[in-house]
Task: inverse folding
């Protein structure tokens, strides 16, 4: 019983001593300034991607064809749009995107190349854009009916 009381007193004294530190002193002013800037941007309104289309159908193509399409967009938001990355669902789908910020009201393009070599029959691929929009990512889709080499005359 004496051990329990002694441990309780020790625990209580440690708890009292450890709480004396002022948490406000631990805040870094540069982090506070960054948070104020971020909050100001949030109040203004974030960037918004408005695409002319989010899907493209190449129709019927021959195996081995390399086809290309363009997805045009506008930043319809109130702050600059940044596209961090764009990745195809496989190596046969290669996107190109603007690396510089897109200001509100400005337009941009995502160019997508699809290589149908060794990709016979129906192909459906997607391109994932990582952005600073509310969603954080956007999905674009392409598809094609690829005629196999054995059926091309």
Result:
């Amino acid at each position: 019983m004496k051990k329990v009381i002694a441990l309780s007193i020790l625990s209580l004294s440690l708890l009292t001593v450890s709480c004396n530190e002022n948490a406000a002193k631990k805040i870094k002013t540069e982090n506070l300034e960054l948070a104020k800037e971020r909050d100001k941007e949030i109040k203004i309104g974030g960037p918004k991607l408005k695409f002319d289309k989010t899907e493209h159908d190449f129709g019927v193509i021959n195996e081995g064809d390399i086809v290309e399409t363009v997805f045009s967009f506008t930043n319809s938001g109130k702050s600059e749009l940044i596209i961090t990355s764009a990745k195809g669902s496989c190596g046969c789908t290669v996107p190109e995107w603007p690396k510089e910020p897109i200001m509100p009201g400005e337009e941009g393009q995502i160019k997508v190349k699809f290589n149908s070599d060794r990709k016979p029959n129906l192909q459906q691929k997607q391109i994932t854009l990582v952005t600073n929009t509310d969603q954080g990512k956007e999905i674009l889709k392409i598809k094609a009916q690829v005629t196999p080499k054995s059926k091309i005359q």
